[in-house]
Structure formats: C-alpha cells, structure tokens
Amino acid sequence: MFRSFMLKNLRFFYIVFICFIPCTIYALETVQVVVLPFEINAPDGREYLKEQLPRVISSYLKQEGAVVLDPGIQADASWKDDLKNAGGIRKFGIERGADYVIWGSLTRIGNIISIDSRMISTMDNSLPFVFFAEGKGIENLSITVKELVRKFSLKLFTRERVAEIVIKGNKRIESDAVKRIIKTKQGDVFLARSLSEDMKAVYKMGYFEDIRIESEESPNGKIITFNLKEKPTIRRINFSGNKLYDDNEISGSLTIKTGSVVNIFTIQNNISRIESLYKEKNYHNVKAAYKIIPVDNNQADIEFTIDEGEKIRIKKIDFIGNNSYTSKELKKVMKSSEKGFWSWLTSSGELNREDLEQDAARLTAWYQNNGYIEARIGDPELEFKDNWIYITIKIVEGSRYKVGQVSIKGDIIKSEKELFDKLEISSQEYYNREILRTDILKLSDIYSDEGYAYVDIIPGIKTNPGTLTVDLTYEIKKGRKVYFEAIQISGNTKTREKVIRRQLAVYEKGLYSGSLLKRSVRNLHRLDYFEDVKVNTSKGSDDDQMILKIGLAEKPTGTFSFGGGYSSTENLFAMASITQRNLFGLGQILQLKAEVGGTSTRFTTSFTEPWLFDIPLTAGFDLYNWERDYDTYDKDSIGGAVRFGYPVYDYTTAYLTYRYDIGNIENITDDASKEVKDLEGENITSSIAATLRYDSRDKVFSPTEGSNHSISIEYAGIGGNIGFTKYLGEVGHYFPLFWGTVGFARAKAGYVRENSGKTLPDYEKFYMGGINTLRGFDWRDISLRDEDDIRVGGYKFVQFNAEYLFPLIKEAGVTGVIFFDTGNVFGRSDDIQWNELRESAGGGIRWYSPMGPIRIEYGFVLDREDGEEGGRWEFAMGNTF
Q: Mostly located where (predicted)?
C-alpha cells in the first residue's frame, strides 16, 4: 500500500515539475550533461525512483539551459562494472560527447530523504565535485531535487553566489533599513539585473543622493558593497521677503521640518504651498523660490525667498444677459464685491472662491424667488490682469411667471381651507421658490404633529408659457402614523433618567409629533445640565414604529466660587458660594451664598425641589440675613420664604410664595424723610405673593428667541406692622434677526398702595436708575421728592427697554449690545405722564464667562436735567444681576 501511495505521489510531483516550473533560461554557453541512474536505498519504491529521479534531474537541468544527453545504458546492470572509478566515468562521458557526468544515490531513513551526488568534468582530470541535499518527507522531494540542481548549475554555468552584502557610507540611516529594501540576499545567485533593481529601490527611499555598487571575489562567492552618500538633513528653514505672514505662520503650512532629509521634490511641493497660502489672501502674483545652503556635518539650510507682489482685488463684476435687473441690483445680492473706497476697512474687493461659488446660487435663488423659474446662472469666469481681478457672470433669465392655480391633492387629513390658510404662495403675485419651500415645511409640520413622521410632500410645478403662469400642486402622501417604540437615552452619567424623561413632551408608545419633539429638545437645553443634546431617530420593528435616541453630553452643575467684582450698585464686593443645580442627579438646587459689598452684606441659603411628589410641583425655601446701607438709613433683615410653583399651561407656571422678614431700621441721618424716621426700630413684614409667569425662552442665559412674561400680586399685612399691596407686570420678548443678531423688547410696570392700619415702608416703594432699570442714571437716582425736597420712593412706575444684541466672539460667548431705556416713577395720586419719561441710550459688551456673567455698558442720559451727570458706566460681575 505504501509503495502504491509513494509511486502516485512521485508521479504527481514529476508532472508538476515538468509542466508548471517557470522556464527561466539564461543566455550562457552550451553545456552537455549525462545523468546516470541513481542508486536507491529505500524500503519501498526502489525501482520506480531509480528510473524517475534521473529524469526529474534532467528536466531541471534542461530548464537551467543544459543539453542532457541520453546515457544509452542497457537494461541490465553490466554497465556498472565499467563505471567503478572516476576514470571510467570520465571515459564514459567522453564517448557520449558530454562535458559533465552526474551520478549518485538517494537514501531514505524514516522520514528523512538525502541525496548524495557527484559531478565530474570530461574536459580535465580534476576530481569529481560532491553535492549533497537533504529534505524531510517524500512530499518535499521536489524541493530537495530543485536545490540540488541549483548547486549543479553554479558549477555548470560558472554562476556565483552572493557571499555577503555590505552597506557603507550611511550615518543616519541604519544598514538594516537598507537591507530590508534590497531584494538580493546572502546566498542568492549573483545577477547584475537584480542589483540594478536594488539600486532603484534604494534611491526611492529618498535618503541618498548617490549610490555605487561594487563586487569583490571571495572564496565563498561575491561580496556586494553598496556605497551610499546620504542627502544632507535640514538644519534650519529661513524665509525672506515675507511681510504678510510671519515665519511661524508660513512654516506651519509646510510639510518639511528641520531634521528631515533634503528632498528636491518635497521642497518644490512646499513652494506651491507657500504660493497657495498667499493666493488665499488674494496675492495672486506671488513668486516663491528656494536656496539650499550646505553647512557642516552633512547638513543644509533651506531659504525660501518670497516675492509677495501686490494684493489684487476685484476691479469689476460684469453680468451678461441681465435685462430685468441692473448690475447694481444683482451686485447687492452677492457677497463678493468690487473694491470700494473703504476697502481697507470693509475688505471689499477681496476674492473668496467659496463666496463666489455661493454667489451663483444666491443669484439663482434671487431670480427664482422673483418669478424667473427658468433662470440659469453660469459659473463665474475670472480674469487676472496685473493687480486686478475681473469677474464675468453669464445669465439666462427666461420669462417671468406669475402664480397660477394652487391645489392640494393626495392624503388630506384636515379641511382644504385649513391647509390653504397655512400657504403663503397663493397670496404671491409671482412664483417664489423660497416661499414654496416654506409652505412644504408648514404642511409637513401639520402632518408630523398628527403622527405622520414620514409624510412626503411633492410640489408639482407646471409652467404655462402661453400665459406665463405656473400652476402648483402640493401632492401629499401621508404614509402611516408612527409611534415611538422606544426612547433610548445615553450619555447621562450623573443625571437620573427620570429627570430627563420628565422634560420630554413625547412618550414611549405615544404618537409621533414633530413640534413636541422640538419642545422636548428645548426643555433639555433649558435645564442647563448638558453641553450638547443630540437627537436621532431610526426605524423600529415595523414601518409604524420609531426609535428615538437622545445622546447627552453632561457638563458640571456644581460650583464652588470665591471671588469678587464691581457693580454700579454695590461698588466693590466679594462673594463666595457653593451651588449644586443638579443635587444627587435629581435636579434639585442647593445654594449657600455670602456677599459682602460696599452697600450691603447678605448671607443666603436656598433649596428647590422641581418635582415634589414626582409631579411638576416646584417647592423650595430661602433663608437670609441681609444688611443694607441705604442713602439715609441702614436696614438689617433676617427672614425667609417658602415657595411653590405648578405649571398651569404651555410654558406657563403659577407660583405662590410666603415671606417673613424682620427688619431693623437704624443709623437714620438727619436728612432722611419723615417716613423713614417713623420706621426706626424693628419692622415685621409677613406677606403672601401670587405670580403667573410665561417663559418660552430657548435658553436661560443669552437667549435668542422666546418670551418671558409675568404678573404678580403681593399682599403684606398677615401680622406685623408692615402692610401693603403690590402689583407688578412685565412682558419681554427675544426675537432672532439677521446674521445671528437678536432683538429684545421689555415693558415693565408696578403699583403699590398702603393697607389700612399698616405702614408702607420706603424700601418697598419704587426707585429707578442703574444697570437693571435705566442705564446711565445712578442707582435709585430716579425718585420723587417730598415736601421737604427729600428723595422718596414712588407708588407707580413704568419702564421700557429695547436692545439689539450681536455676536462679537461667538465661540467665547461675547456679545455686543445697543440699548434704549425709558421710564419714570410717579406719586400716589399722579397719573402716568408719558411726556415725563426719562430716557437713556448706549451700548456695551456682555460675556457669560466661566465665573459668571459680566456686563460692561455705558448709558447716555438723553434728557439731562440740571445737576445730573450726562452718563455713566455700568459694570457688573458675578451673580449680582
């Protein structure tokens, strides 16, 4: 069985050798060889190997380029008698015209196969060459035979092996790194062609400027030496001629650095980088060059010389094909502009390719928003001439189309009248692409609020060239109602999930609503617990199921601060506080605060639970000790308050607060009013206040849209000697404008009256002036005068503030403000005289800094009276406003 298996395997290897081994024939001298039968020392397959082994050897020799002659041996073994020594074998080869004769034996011991062979030359009387090859396993016989034939070839064709590879001249680059690139290895056949390829590979490393290969004979073969000359490294990179950019700015844009190898191609690439850097600033005539300055230790300095040229600007913007609008009108639509007189200040005339590409889209939108539905705008063509840029834009206006018939088709879930009332396009005279898109969003919002999250609204546009009208059809495919299969919340490492879920206006298993989802995101932002809120939706287990994924990035909600500042009401002040706005991740607020200022000292402890009994019932308390220095007296108060709040409508919360205050009036000056002097000593205020507040601002700090309205009534006199009824009302609205700017308008009014049998203290009356009322006036500077011409508080007041807020450094939260304030206080029996309102205007900067909000504003008094200042700075820092 083993013999059969071995014979089959040998046949297989034999066929593979003959058919698949590449026939690489080298152009060498012709060598004629005779291969004699090998003696086989193996337990099985002896006869087969005796016959086949010479054939396989002969086949390999032919592939190497030898001519193998037929030995002409008879079947019997009598020929062995004539070949018992080297002389007989040499004679045998000469008789058959052979240059060499090969013979030997194969021995198999266990799994080891060894082949001992000899080769004798017939051209001289030299001793036979001895060759040996050994392999493991019959399956590796082909490899063993091939290795043996390679050894024959080295002698037959006078080929030499590579005895050693030597790397010289390299200092920085390790020899092993070079040898890894070289394909020729120790022990390989010496081939000049392979060394040529190795030379190219070493050059490609980019580290050497010269490579020479030398060979030297040795007893073991050729010694190949690669003589290398390394390229110098960059010691320093210098720049000259640069004025627009400093050296650091230019080097920061380059890919070459000090210590890297000097590479001409890399340097040329960086020349292009420098020129591109200047062209971004419209220095299109810039020219850059370089010098390589050799220095010691195989180093070099690279000097880039820059001829910046003049900054070129847009000289002219021409339009071709505009008949309906003048070039002046179209230029106003574009962000790119021609150089103007104030270009040094406004940067007019500078070329920004991204803006220019967008200008083509802006012009297209302009035309299509004015009825030119077929308008086409070509790509702007630029011409650079001397120090100017000339831009030409080709326009195909087409005809102007009016709005024709407007219809709604498809899945209509509400009355057509109700849907048409939401559309603006029907009231337009001419076709307007922007309004068309807005109408699609409005219809989508209507359907999404009914659960159709995947509603598809396709606008059908049919132009009527004959009447120059366009008929519009809103085709609605509502799809299926979608429900929230699951709401997955991630990223909240501290805030408990129930605190997050109670801010969501959508619920698991509930119907999808686009407006409620937006409301949920706004609610999460208003918590001010998270740096980022990301909302993603994906398909659920069925077409009518949706997975809502809310990803949160929490930010610190606990702070310990110790610092100080200055405000126009307190002058210098110091403050220390410990605040946690998300206590234990439950959304509770705890604050311990101490403030010591020029006019007051206050210690406060407050706590708020936003969801008492797991319902949206806000509850909290405040405890305080407040010493305040008024102009004519001092007030030392100890008190506290208990408060509750409950949402009663959308964005609307009702609050109820009970306050108890024990105030001691002392240090009354001689110029104090009679009312103040009557209050000397202890005064007790026990009051209850009801407030209704509507707050839809998108953020608590620096809002950009939304409203903040409130109305409150406070009744004091539930015990104690202080008794009054105070009414306060306020309306405020933030509205986004353009370019990220925001408008803010606020109106505020109040009225207070004394309760029967009680006292209305001066400190509960109304004064105005200062950073939170009318800026430009001193704190409490707007007041009434009693019969002794002493300042006293008013019984009524009105206040109006208008602000325009614009981003200065958006990333840092720095905002500029321009404002107008007006208002006044009035007596008990006085009517509000609108012509007596005091006025101020000004501007400033606000920054929501890491240590709290900062305001720096200057107000001008517009209706200055005798003895009044014309204006003043208002400054506040920390949590004092």
A: membrane
Q: What's the half-sphere exposure (Cβ side, CA atoms, 13 Å) at 783?
A: 20
**CB 304: neighbour CB atoms within 10 A?**
22
Does residue 151 share a domain with residue 172?
no
Q: In this predicted model, what pLDDT tens digit does every residue of 322-357 receive, in sequence order?
A: 999 999 999 999 988 888 776 666 667 777 888 888
- Rounded CA separation 860/839 (Å): 9
Residue 68 has pLDDT above 50, yes or no: yes
Tell me which DSSP letter residue 107 carries: E
Average pLDDT over residues 29-34: 78
**DSSP codes of every residue in 181-242:** H----TTSB--HHHHHHHHHHHHHTS-EEEEEEEEEEETTEEEEEEEEEEPPEEEEEEEES-
Whether residues 30 and 80 share a domain: the answer is yes
CA atoms of 162 and 184, how far apart (whole Å):
8
Residue 525 inside a domain? The answer is yes
Under DSSP, is residue 274 helix (H, G, I), strand (E, B) or coil?
A: helix
Q: What pLDDT, on a 0 to 100 scale, did the predictor assign at position 881?
A: 28
Together in a domain, 45 and 145:
yes
Q: DSSP letter at 501?
A: H
Identify whether residues 250 and 302 lie together within a single domain.
yes
Is 515 inside a domain boundary? yes
Q: Residue 335 is part of a domain; what is its CATH number? A: 3.10.20.310
One domain, residues 106 and 192: no
Q: How far apart are CA 555 and CA 491, in angstroms?
A: 11
pLDDT tens-digit map of 798-841: 999 999 999 988 877 889 999 999 999 999 888 888 889 999 99
The pTM of the full predicted model, rounded to 2 decimals, is 0.52
Q: Which two tokens stand for residue 616?
A: 């949206």
Phi, psi of 377 (to 5 degrees): -115, 125
- The one-letter code for the residue type at 132 is F
Same-domain check for residues 247 and 258:
yes
Does the structure show a pLDDT above 60 at 112? yes
CB distance 309 to 285 below 8 Å: yes
Residues contacting 407, CB < 8 A, separation 6+: 471, 472, 473, 474
Number of structural domains (the chain) is 6
Name the nearest CA neighbour of 324 among 259, 277, 371, 359.
371
Closest CA to 12 of 139, 110, 113, 105: 139
Dump the DSSP string for 335-400: S-----TTHHHH-TT---HHHHHHHHHHHHHHHHTTT-TT-EEPPPEEEEETTEEEEEEEEE----
318 and 453: one domain?
A: no
End residue of a domain, out of 197, 230, 263: 230
Closest to 819 (Cα-Cα) out of 807, 806, 809, 828? 806
Is the confidence at residue 684, as pLDDT, over 80? yes
Q: Judge contact between 744 and 734, C-beta under 8 A.
A: yes
- Nearest-5° Cα angle at 481, 477 to 487: 130
| Shared-domain flag, residues 19 and 129 | yes
Name residue 566's beta-bridge partners.
572
SS3 for 408-431, per residue? EEECCCCCHHHHHCCCCHHHCCEC
Q: Is residue 812 part of a domain?
A: no
User: What's the farthest any 2 CA atoms get from each other in the chain?
Assistant: 157
Report the distance separating Cα 586 and Cα 529, nearest Å. 11
Neighbour-count burial for 47-76, b at 16+ CB within 10 Å, e otherwise: ebbeebbbebbbbbbebbbbebbebebeee
Write the Ramachandran bin of 410: left for phi over 0, alpha for psi from -120 to 50, otherwise beta. left
Final residue of a domain: which of 517, 534, 553? 553
Nearest CA-CA partner of 475 in 515, 447, 433: 447
The CATH number given to whatever domain includes residue 116 is 3.40.50.10070
Locate 711 and state its tokens.
């109305």
Q: Which domain holds residue 248?
A: 233-307
Please count the CA atoms within 13 angstroms of the CA of 102 that sit on its side-chain side: 29
Kindly list the distances between the CA atom of residue 317 and the CA atoms of 282, 310, 537, 823, in Å, as whole numbers in the listed order: 16, 20, 46, 51
Q: Does residue 326 sit within a domain? A: yes
